[in-house]
Amino acid sequence: MIYKHILGPGVAILLALGAPAMAQTTLKLATDSGAKGSPSGDALDRWAALIEEGTDGEVTVDVFYQNELGSQAEVLDLLVAGDLDLMINWPVTSYDERLGVLFTPYMVTSWDEAFEAYKPGGWVNEVLKDIWADLGVKFFGPWPEGFNGIASRKKYAMTPEEAKDLKIRVPAMFPMAESVQALGYQTATIDWSEVFTAIQTGVVDGDGANIIYWDYEYFRDVLDYYNQVKMQFITGVMTMNQDSWEGLDEDQQKVVSDAATTVMNEAFDQAQERDQFYIQQAKDAGMTYVEPSDEELKGMVKMVREKVWPQMEDRVGKDIMDQIRANAGEL
Predict the structure, then answer these.
(1) 51, 256 Cβ separation under 8 angstroms
(2) Is this model's pTM higher than 0.85 or not?
(3) How far apart are CA 27 and CA 246, in angstroms?
(4) Nearest of 157, 118, 326, 123 to residue 237 by alpha carbon
(5) What Å distances lie between residue 180 and 28, 112, 122, 155, 303, CA to CA?
(6) Separation of alpha carbons 249 and 86, rounded Å
(7) C-alpha to C-alpha distance for 80 and 288, rounded to whole angstroms
(8) pLDDT (tens digit, 9 = 90+) per residue, 41-83?
(9) What is the pLDDT of residue 23?
(10) CB of 233 within 8 A of CB of 146?
(11) Judging by beta carbons within 10 Å of its beta carbon (0-12, 13-18, 19+), is residue 74 exposed, middle or buried?
């Protein structure tokens, strides 16, 4: 029997000539943050299992966890190029600064506001869908985690005066650095894989991008404080290379999309409870959890919005910022 291989982006089809056609598709699914067994790693496994189950094994999924395919920027390169099919990731904004919408500081300030904005069909998702489409990527929706904070060693800051001597790590995502700087901190852009060493050796004094899970799970031995400044509602995104999507038939597309929706809905149900669990874990491990008062938080919101939102308008455009201003949570 003679076999002919036809290869498309992320899709391998084996066609037996002279015999009934039978397609077998293998998709590559990855994350840029989260090892196997972490919440995001479990979400990858769940998405893969639902796809394989829903297609009766016609579509198989190879899963790759944090750092297995490269850095945060490198795996996004793979997705856009079509060498990777599916992702749950926290995208760097080098491809399109409009992706910075995902990291707009103080766009929402409560869990209720966050769920309304980021749930499937929410106003933030509608903005992001069009931006990803311009990159040749299909956007399914968010994988929510919770509000971030600034984790530090030896001391923490509640005012710009207290913050000026602290250098805080941020990822290469606009406007992460700008947001932390607006509170008075110095910043350094450092890849996720190098953060522990940077804190341990004193290159930086802490991490200013993540929900408490990541700072507790990965850095609790070198951090003393977690200040819940709630600057961004942190969410990964569930995406697929557009060519890979179009390489599936309609039934397969429905399975992949429905599976993504299931994983997203489960994450919304679990996010707040999981966040509270890791707050307690961090406290039990000896980390001091700092929660600003309502008045302190209002001051931070006002200061950061005034400094960062005009910068964002220059990068993401007035139309997008007008939508943010119209929908953002009130002070």
Answers:
(1) yes
(2) no
(3) 13
(4) 118
(5) 35, 24, 26, 16, 11
(6) 16
(7) 40
(8) 999 999 999 999 999 999 999 999 998 999 888 999 999 999 9
(9) 66
(10) yes
(11) middle
